[in-house]
Amino acid sequence: MPLIIKDEYPEKLFREDGKRLDGRDKHELRPIKMEVGLLKNADGSAYLEWGNNKIFCAVYGPRDVHPHYLAKPDKGILRVFYRMATFSVFERKRPAPGRREKEISMILGDCLEPLLFLELYPGNSFEVFINVMDADGGTRCACATVAALALADAGVPMRSLVTAIAVGKIDGELVTDLSGIEDKAGEADLPCAITWFNEELSLLQFDGSMDLKEFDESITLAKNALIKIHEMQLNTLKNKYIAIQEEYSGGKNKK
Amino acid sequence: MENEEDKSIEETITDNDEAEETAEFNGEDISREVVVPGEVLTEDTKNFLPGRGTILNKERTKIISLNIGLKQINKNYINVLPLKGFYTPRAGDKIIALVTDKNPVKYRCDINAKDEGVLKPRNTVKRGKTRGFRGGGSESADLSTEKYQIGDILIVKVLSADRLNQPELTTVGQYLGKRRDGIVISIDPPKIPRVIGRNGSMIKMLKNLTKSNIFVTQNGRIWLKGENIAYERLLIDAIKKIEREAHTVGLTDRISEYIDNEKKIRGVN
Fold first, then answer.
1. Which CATH number is A163's domain given?
2. CA distance to partner chain B, nearest, from residue A154 (Å)
3. Helix or strand run (H / E) with residue A84
4. What is the pLDDT of residue A87?
5. Is residue A173 assigned to a domain?
6. pLDDT-based confidence at B151, cuts 50/70/90?
7. How many domains does chain B divide into?
8. Which residues contact A175 (CB under 8 A, 6 or more apart)?
9. pLDDT tens track for A184-229
10. Which of A250, B68, B190, B193 is at a distance of 20 to 30 A from B82, taking alpha carbons?
């Protein structure tokens, strides 16, 4: 007999004391931990823990394109491979890439492309491999954030970094950084990403219902949260090198 | 043959000294400030111009870094010297290549760049030997080119390189050709100038202290040969240490101290 577990969501997504189910305030982020340069054989790599999400990212390139017909004579291409591990979700995920994975790979590619100078690498490709080891809501936003870190770690010339977050509406109230259960049981979900060189939206998806005023408000909420995460990204990249400098300057590193 | 090779190494190192990167990376006015992509270097666009590794924003109000690297101000240019990156071949570079494929018309070489290098037989003509006495002789034309096998390590010069075509290589020229002994290690290409040091100071120090021959190339590969295996191991460890600490101050002194200490610990004389 197969074990069938129905998806059951709680009726209320706020606790009695006004906090969310995981104990956060409305606009509080989940704990975030970032690391760069941990995969030796990749040109650049990064690891991100965002709440319960655990994501590895590896970057290779510039290098030859295989299959060769995908290569473009006038510019390079950026290929993103988003994959979820079989054990990353509650029910076993089939390892073959499905409709959802292909979609997310595509939107992440479109999100990262404005950062790079692809016209300098005709006939070549940059490849970004993202593996989600553990998933709990907002993986596409976490993936865009970690992919930008890995590209910067690989030494690829970039205009700036990109940072992404999901905002949404649960039980009639706007909240920042949706977790898995809020994503499924909530009313609206709005993942968005910002490229920092022009501060424009590079990724915007929408699911659910929300009026225009709330939409404007959620973009502002997202931007406030993104500034904090961007700061973390910059510090992570710098600390890899500053830590070595401080070893030999007795902590007196000029900043 | 041995002596000839030794001399060639000496000569090529002097070549390396004149490379412009050497002077730039080791300039005294480098602040050891680490910058990351997208970071604003200055908003004073009247007095400063964007140099290497930087870009002006669309409104021309800020100079922005493109790489993760060290900020450097040279006269009125702001540069970013990358700490990580890949090798882009330029005409005239002397690099170490690995033969990966051969066919009747060309050899293909791995040169640690985005494209494979192409080595055509007409660029492998034997040096120092004529085809025959007074232009005649029975030797056929193909005897006058060097033959290489898959897996050979060559020191080559880049004849032409651009972003559209595969770089063309040559082994014709002084000090170029096949290496039959020694060890090749590779490090991050942007850190090569640090292994050479200012006016070749680092490389001279390494050679003197470890009694080894070193040949440093721009594509991140280093050929080395020591008196014995102990010296070679010590040298490899020292180069890896330089790679890790390339962005710190007082590196040459620290490395010389490190080698002296390690010699005592390892019992190498």
1. 3.30.230.70
2. 6
3. strand A77-84
4. 94
5. yes
6. very high
7. 3
8. A20, A26, A27, A167, A168, A169, A182
9. 899 999 999 999 998 999 999 999 999 999 999 999 999 999 999 9
10. A250
Tell me the per-residue pLDDT of A219-238, one tens digit each, with 9 for 90 and over. 999 999 999 999 999 999 99
* Residues of chain B neighbouring A247 (CB-CB closer than 8 A): 248
What is the radius of gyration, based on Cα positions, of chain A? Answer: 19
Share of chain B above pLDDT 90, in %: 60
Range of the domain at B59: 36-82
Task: Write the single-letter amino acid at B193.
Answer: P
Q: Measured between alpha carbons, how far is B101 from B260 in angstroms, rounded to an integer?
A: 43
pLDDT at B30: 58
Say which DSSP state B233 is in.
Answer: H
b/e B51-81 (16+ beta carbons within 10 angstroms → b): bbbbbebeeeebbbbbbbbbbbbeeeebbbb
Q: By three-state DSSP, how is residue A58 classified?
A: strand
Query: What CATH number is associated with residue B214?
Result: 3.30.1370.10
* pTM confidence score: 0.88
Q: What is residue B143's predicted lDDT score, i.e. its pLDDT?
A: 56
**CA-to-CA distance for B211 and B205, rounded, in angstroms?**
10
Residue A102 lies in a domain: yes
Which residues of A fall below an 8 Å CB-CB distance to B?
Answer: 43-44, 61-64, 115, 120-124, 152-161, 196-198, 234, 237-238, 241-242, 244-245, 247-249, 253-255
Give the contacts of B228 (CB within 8 A, at least 6 positions apart).
none
Query: What is the spatial distance between Cα A38 and Cα A58, in angstroms, rounded to a whole number?
Result: 9
